[in-house]
Amino acid sequence: MPNVFLHSSAIHDAAAVITGETSRYILSVLRYKTGGELSIFDEKGRFFKGIITSCAKNAVQLSLTPQTPPNTESPVSITLCQGLLKGSKMDIVVQKAVELGVKEIIPMVTSRTQLDYTRKIDRWRKIAIEAARQSMRVVVPEILETANFHALTQSIHSTGAAAMMFYEGGGKGLKYPLESEREEDNIYVITGPEGGFTPEEVKQAEASGVTIVTLGSRILRAETAAISALTLIQFIFGDMGRGPVDCGRAAPSDKEV
Q1: Cα separation of 24 and 202, whole Å?
Q2: What is the pLDDT of residues 154-177, one digit of tens each?
Q3: Residue 134 dihedral angles phi and psi, to the nearest 5°
Q4: DSSP-assigned letter for residue 252
């Protein structure tokens, strides 16, 4: 059953009206008609079974039944702090990070960032919605506004959360900080832009309590490093290294929409 994201403002009294690009996707791509069934989720983490009650050229009407969400969220809350990347590379990192279960993404300006400003936040938010839909998540990760590296590391330090910066110049093995330090429900993952981090940024991060971590002796592309780091963290500390879970849909709940 296809998974479709709707803003909660489109859901009223156990019904919803879908318009715009989403309605075109349902009618033209999926070729659904009256009686078709969809899975619906919103930004509040609610999950519904939707049945199409009527179709028009630019609108689809649904009746909704609340469902227990599938168990697709990671037990660890991961925030990816990603140095801004050129072209479509940032799009790829956002997409894959959402598929890999991050809770939020913070685009980051560093010393070697080759972009001083970006107007792509709205684009990345749309990519996040689509990636959440495709991977059967019911929580769309938040894409925050671009932050400065120095200010961000200071902010992370003030929260007391665990933080790891992946550095091509060396550091601890990934498994060591995760298993030897106190267990955390929240982890900040900091990965750099093309060209990586400067030695000064590494020293600053260490002074802020960030653990410097290595992914091995090979130099990885920035987008590869981010995806690899998230995959390993989910395997060691999240849900990728665990046994199979029930991702099926449970019976409808009794609560109102």
Answers
A1: 48
A2: 999 888 888 999 998 887 887 665
A3: -65, -35
A4: B
